[in-house]
Specification:
The complex is a heterodimer of chains A (230) and B (402). Chain A is an alpha/beta fold and 230 residues long. Chain A has six helices and ten strands, in the order E-E-E-H-E-E-H-E-H-H-H-E-H-E-E-E. Chain A has a six-stranded mixed beta sheet with strand order 6-7-8-3-9-10, sandwiched between helices. Chain A has a four-stranded antiparallel beta sheet with strand order 2-1-4-5. In chain A, strand 9 and strand 10 form a beta hairpin. In chain A, helix 3 packs across helix 4 and helix 3 runs parallel beside helix 5. The longest helix of chain A is centred in the middle third of the chain and has 17 residues. Chain A is globular, with a radius of gyration of 18 Å. Chain B has a nine-stranded mixed beta sheet with strand order 5-6-4-7-3-2-8-1-9. Chain B has 402 residues and is an alpha+beta fold. The interface between A and B is medium-sized, with 35 and 31 residues.
């Protein structure tokens, strides 16, 4: 599934007053290609997270459109956009994103249960979750609550949760932060594998190692997104 | 179970201290609502019952009753007294213009009887002419009282067919009356001949000197009057007070209105306190839910990233409020029920007002309304708190939290 942005931008107010308006993301066109790993690099505060939040349907652009599967994401109702995100977009936000009242496995299966999928699918997704947990080295933590997890274990849980519904679009914000070299490689392998199977993968990262997995790289500077040649 | 309800129950059980705090607020709210409503309704029902029992337009008692129990005291608090109007004065009262019906009552304070831990009031009535007590008695007893029979108020510890001794003579309990919430609940009723016999026995046993110089056969303690249509109650009352010096006539309406005023004041204070506590509980709930919503912005943002709609998030909060509200209000109502029933007599004594607890359908109605108000208040407040966050772009929430 291809995701296309037409002239999207995002303005923010710094403090109060119109003079303090600034562009977090300047008007940009962007295409996330099907079956490719696209990476965005850039310094902190360059607008990367704002940009991918707009792509995921989580932040309304100040102008422009985000078109997925021929539909403008922001012309959909909240219910439709939420359902679309659940079924087609796997989002890995920055930081610790586990729900404290659920175990690791319950957290991972949350996107499957969200729209009341049947027991057969829940069972098969549960098996898939165990496989992925084993692959990323957190299988023994399935019944553990998030407060007992390290930062790296928490990240791996969030990655598996984003992949559990086999989304056509995967958007990952610093997915390998807090991970050791081996686990970083495991995660990037996994994301690359998904792109080979047809998913459109977008990774925001600082890791140089990630460049080896990228098909397309963009660089973001002060809200401006441009093609980047390694 | 839907995801929203399952998430809500997990949030409650796994964030126990937060859940307990919120449940305590709801217990506080529902307890106050129930107990306050119960108290106000009991007072209103007591007044209604008192009005029905009094029944007359004018009550006449002798001046000598001052310092003893007045009719008001007997009816309201069960304070007993022995005082009498002579046959001559009764005849004068009955001759006043504008009187449609007259009923005499004879009061006698008992010596300690087998039924009761303290002295009680025995009231003698003439079933032929009585229009105040008799209709109430008719609810429980249709027959004619024999000379050795009595009827007891609801608080008197004697059952039907028991025998109770007064002044050395045994009397059979023919009926027990419905509760009224007034002093009459602790009184004993009998016919005029029987009470006069008791008075004679009391005099013979030297239990009282109240009958010195009194012709027991013709006197009465109080005369209750119904005024003819077309006559003003105040005119008839004045007429009696001006022309018959040894008695004091009081308009029943003024007695009731005094009590109604007292009751209005007490109800007003209770109502004010209930509203105050209700507002306080709403403010506490609103603050708690607002704090909770803020604390859970990240959680909500994460749920949004994996596809939860705004409606779903509001659903999670509403289910939490529903579960906590249900548990809290059930506990609060049970506590208030136990307290309201167990402290019934203490409340009645301390308020010194007619107090009759509501009947079962009314209690069920208060329970349902309290439950609904407590639960709905929580749901509405949680919905509003969640709404503020749900309306915000998830990207902004994530940006604020990171």
């Amino acid at each position: 599934m291809e995701l296309r942005c037409e002239n999207i931008s995002r303005l923010f107010l710094r403090g109060s007053g119109e003079s303090n308006v600034f562009y977090a993301v300047k008007p940009s066109d962007f295409i996330l290609c099907e079956g490719k790993v696209t990476e965005i690099i850039g310094r902190s505060g360059s607008g990367k997270t704002t940009f991918i939040n707009m792509l995921s349907g989580l932040l309304t652009p100040s102008e422009g459109k985000v078109i997925v599967d021929g539909k403008d994401l922001y012309s959909m109702s909240d219910e439709d956009r939420s359902l679309f995100r659940n079924k087609h977009i796997g989002m890995i936000p920055q930081g610790q994103t586990a729900l404290g009242s659920l175990t690791v496995l319950e957290n991972i299966l949350l996107p499957v249960r969200m729209y009341g999928d049947n027991e057969d699918r829940l069972r098969s997704c549960s098996n898939k979750a165990i496989e992925l947990m084993e692959r990323l080295g957190i299988k023994e933590l399935e019944e553990v609550f998030p407060k007992e997890l390290s930062g790296g274990e928490n990240r791996r849980m969030a990655i598996i949760r984003a992949l559990i519904n086999d989304p056509e679009i995967i958007i990952a914000d610093e997915p390998t932060g807090n991970l050791d070299d081996k686990t970083t490689a495991d995660v990037l392998d996994l994301l690359k594998e998904r792109s080979v199977k047809g998913s459109s993968v977008l990774i925001v990262t600082h890791e140089k190692e990630a460049f080896n997995y990228a098909d397309i790289i963009y660089r973001m500077d002060a809200g401006d997104i441009r093609s980047y040649n390694v | 179970m839907s995801l929203a309800s399952s998430l809500a129950s997990k949030n409650i059980s796994r964030k126990l201290s937060r859940s307990i705090l919120m449940t305590v607020v709801v217990i506080f709210l529902s307890f106050t609502l129930f107990a306050g409503s119960f108290l106000i309704l009991s007072l209103q029902r007591g007044l209604k019952s008192y009005r029905e029992r009094l029944g007359a337009d004018i009550v006449v008692i002798p001046n000598s009753s001052k310092g003893h129990g007045s009719v008001d005291d007997i009816f309201l608090q069960g304070i007993t007294g022995n005082y009498y109007i002579s046959a001559k004065d009764i005849a004068k009262i009955e001759a006043v213009e504008g009187i449609e019906q007259v009923s005499r009552q004879f009061y006698l304070t008992s010596a300690k009887a087998s039924c009761c831990s303290s002295r009680i009031q025995i009231i003698g009535i003439d079933p032929e002419t009585d229009f105040t007590i008799q209709p109430w008695i008719s609810n429980n007893y249709k027959g004619t009282l024999a000379a050795d029979e009595i009827i007891v108020g609801n608080s008197v510890s004697a059952a039907v067919s028991d025998h109770v001794k007064f002044y050395g003579r045994s009397y059979r309990v023919a009926a027990k009356l419905d509760r009224t919430g007034t002093g009459l609940d602790s009184a004993v009723f009998t016919g005029m001949d029987t009470i006069r016999q008791m008075a004679e026995d009391a005099g013979n046993l030297m239990e009282t000197d109240a009958f010195t110089g009194v012709n027991i056969k013709d006197c009465a303690s109080a005369v209750l009057i119904k005024v003819k249509d077309g006559y003003q109650i105040s005119d008839v009352t004045d007429d009696i007070n001006i022309h018959i010096t040894k008695v004091q006539a009081t308009s029943a309406r003024s007695m009731i209105s005094d009590i109604a005023d007292g009751l209005g004041n007490v109800s007003g204070i209770i109502g004010f306190l209930v509203v105050l506590v209700f507002i306080l509980a709403i403010v506490i709930l609103a603050v708690v839910y607002a704090l909770l919503s803020n604390e859970r912005r990240k959680e909500f943002a994460v749920l949004r990233t994996i596809g939860a709609s705004g409606k779903m998030l509001s659903g999670v909060m509403s289910f939490e409020a529903l579960y906590i509200g249900s548990a809290g209000s059930v506990i609060g109502i049970i506590l208030a029920l136990i307290l309201s029933y167990s402290l019934e007599s203490s409340i009645k004594d301390s308020l010194e007002l007619p107090y009759l607890i509501p009947d079962v359908p009314a209690v069920i109605l208060i329970i349902l309304l309290t439950f609904l108000i407590a639960v709905l208040t929580g749901i509405v407040i949680s919905f509003i708190s969640a709404g503020k966050i749900v309306r915000k772009d998830t990207g902004l929430l994530l940006r604020e939290e990171n």
